[in-house]
Design brief:
Blueprint lengths: L2 E11 L3 H17 L4 E10 L4 E10 L2 H8 L10 H4 L2 E4 L4 E5 L25
Antiparallel strand pairs: 1-3, 1-4, 1-5, 2-3
Length: about 120
């Protein structure tokens, strides 16, 4: 049976990365990790070189039913506390879901940056 990867992406000022990591760990990820059916929860950060950072909150679940039980069926839009909204520069308006056969399908990939290496492979897409 396929697992579900649930993601949400947003952008912040790079200077807020430490604060954002701490907030996500204390208030978001720790709560996700104890939910029935949650297998993993992480936050991924990528500096964009322009003073901003992209943040992806990703969690792996046993099924969409487990996600619906967690979020009360509000599976399309992320919940953002009002005191946090002002710190987010931009955000995806919707949560994204991906079917994965196993946790092995989630493989870390090196992100190439043209400024880092001149002989890097072609950029995706």
């Amino acid at each position: 049976m396929a697992k579900v990867l649930r993601t949400w992406t947003f952008w912040i000022r790079a200077a807020l990365e430490g604060e954002c990591r701490e907030y996500l760990e204390q208030h978001v990820l720790s709560g996700l990790r104890v939910q029935p059916g949650n297998l993993r929860a992480s936050a991924l950060f990528r500096g964009l070189g322009d003073g901003t950072a992209q943040v992806v909150v990703a969690s792996v679940w046993e099924s969409m039913d487990c996600i619906r039980a967690y979020d009360g069926g509000a599976t399309s839009r992320p919940a953002i506390p009002p005191d946090i909204r002002s710190k987010i520069l931009d955000r995806d308006s919707r949560l994204r879901y991906f079917a994965i056969d196993s946790l092995d399908d989630i493989v870390p990939a090196k992100l190439w940056d043209d400024a880092m290496e001149t002989d890097s492979p072609a950029q995706p897409g």
